[in-house]
From TrEMBL:
The protein's name: MFS transporter
Taxonomic lineage: Bacteria, Bacillati, Actinomycetota, Actinomycetes, Bifidobacteriales
Topology class, membrane: Multi-pass membrane protein
Segments traversing the membrane: 12-35, 47-66, 78-96, 102-125, 137-159, 165-185, 197-218, 238-257, 277-298, 310-332, 344-365, 371-390, 411-432, 452-472
Alphabetical UniProt keywords: Membrane, Transmembrane, Transmembrane helix, Transport
Record bears the keyword Transmembrane: yes
């Protein structure tokens, strides 16, 4: 019998690289709670301050497609040290920067660090885990993806209530240098040889244009819709949204076309011809729209409809985040023991109950019920989400796993950005013309927007479940022929 124990150095490597990715994703969501304070400090409006998050997401999404090339070309330790350097440099600039453009530069650097660290963690797990332990270790890795954005608002609200906002970055630098760096230097190992892979610059530019165009389309479409509903001028935003969509889709089509004809493509896409894997990918992109977007919805509905403080609204997502911290590895253990079908479908049938209950009680929510129903969603989501990627990558050839990892992580980031843009637009449309913030009519309008949002969430999760059911049916038919 082969030794199926989890090596201690593998655990250390996951902790070292995962902590970098965790810090990167955490600071992404921490900043959203700080927007009012940042607007006052830098004298910028709402549309401008949003770029602190938008530009970070764009850079992360643009860096993710490089992960396949980086994984083939460079050693894991080299990539780890690059991620450490980028994380520390970005945090230092955030601490000393006193001009808004400088803060944006820092967010670009931090986004590059997260874009390197997150897929590196997944590649290490997939390459070095014992086969019988892949599910549970992917569940551990999923903690980074699911818990960090969930507790970000809580951390941001807590820190900003007692310390200057820059203290967040003062705190993370010692964690990186005293925990992540030494553990990584000792534990990150190379188990597969590097290759003489070449960077296809034209394809990289095209995928960056595609991601930036699509994210900007979502952002500007939301601005245009909100302006139109409130009676303002939406022409500029609508034109910008249309141009961004054309550029994004055109660049994406070019990327796919050139990848088929390239001798050394940036990302090899042949494995996407398998409909079972493709259906997994669609579900994996749809679910973060709800999973990551929930943090925005909960905090805004709590403050603008229920009248809670920023700190309390951030704390409402904490129970769901903590349950995610516990059950993501449990979901992986269930996958290792029972296979993919029951653990994944059972988890998301449980998860969809959360937004269903939120919709039913949307006009009479309290902070307790808001947190409680989100807790139900967080339980199911954390139990099943990482298993989708695990099962998909198990069904492609090992040499294509870095490519699959790059595509899945890129779709995850895009889904998260799409969720925030979609749900903020829905709430803005509902609030348009409802009076001043804090008034009874404005609170009622926010509650109505919340009900629309929860209905949208139900539809998105239902589509994802249907994709997974179809994928499992394809897999069952294949197995029956063997």
């Amino acid at each position: 019998m082969p030794d199926e124990r989890i090596p201690g150095k593998l655990i250390g490597a996951i902790v070292a690289v995962g902590s970098l990715a965790f810090i990167g994703i955490l600071t992404e969501t921490v900043m959203t709670v700080l927007f009012p304070q940042l607007m006052r400090e830098f004298n910028v409006d709402t549309a401008t301050v949003q770029w602190i998050t938008t530009i970070y997401l764009l850079v992360v999404a643009a860096t993710m497609p490089l992960s396949s090339y980086l994984n083939r070309r460079f050693k894991h330790r080299t990539l780890f040290l690059a991620a450490v350097a980028l994380a520390v440099l970005g945090s230092l600039i955030m601490i000393v920067g006193h001009a808004f453009p400088v803060i944006l530069i820092a967010r670009v650097i931090q986004g590059m660090g997260s874009g390197v660290a997150t897929p590196l963690m997944i590649n290490i797990i997939l390459e070095q885990s014992p086969k019988s332990k892949v599910g549970r270790l992917m569940g551990v890795g999923s903690l980074v993806i699911t818990v960090a954005p969930a507790i970000g608002p809580t951390v941001g609200g807590a820190v900003s209530s007692i310390l200057p906002w820059r203290a967040i970055f003062v705190i993370v630098i010692p964690i990186i240098l005293l925990v992540s760096l030494p553990v990584g230097l000792k534990c990150v190992e190379q188990h597969r040889p590097t290759e003489e892979a070449r960077l296809n610059s034209l394809q990289f530019v095209s995928i960056v244009l595609a991601l930036c165009g699509l994210v900007m389309f979502l952002n500007q479409a939301g601005v245009a819709v909100s302006a139109a509903v409130s009676g303002g001028s939406a022409t500029v935003s609508a034109v910008f949204a249309g141009v961004s969509l054309i550029v994004g889709l055109g660049a994406l089509l070019f990327f796919g076309w050139s990848s088929k004809r390239s001798f050394s493509p940036l990302i090899r896409l042949g494995w996407l011809r398998d409909p079972m894997v493709l259906l997994h990918l669609i579900a994996y992109m749809l679910l973060p729209i709800v999973g990551i977007g929930f943090g925005y919805v909960i905090t805004n509905v709590a403050q603008l409809s229920l009248g809670t403080s920023a700190f309390l609204s951030g704390a409402l997502v904490l129970p769901g985040a903590l349950i995610g911290a516990f059950f993501a590895p449990v979901g992986g253990m269930l996958y290792d023991r029972f296979g993919p079908v029951r653990p994944i479908l059972g988890a998301f049938f449980a998860a969809i109950c959360g937004p269903i209950l939120l919709l039913v009680f949307s006009m009479r929510l309290t902070p307790v019920t808001l947190a409680g129903f989100y807790f139900i969603f967080g339980f199911g989501y954390s139990l099943g989400f990482s298993n989708i990627m695990t099962n998909a990558l198990r069904n492609i050839a090992p040499q294509f796993m870095p490519d699959g990892n790059a595509v899945f992580n890129t779709c995850l980031q895009f889904g998260g950005a799409a969720g925030t843009a979609l749900f903020s637009t829905i709430l803005s449309v509902a609030q348009a013309g409802a009076g001043e913030e804090g008034s009874t009519t404005f609170r009622h309008a926010t509650a109505v927007g919340g009900s629309w949002t929860f209905a949208t969430m139900i539809g998105i999760v239902a589509i994802a479940i249907c994709c997974l059911i179809a994928a499992f049916r394809i897999g069952a038919k294949r197995n029956s022929r063997l």
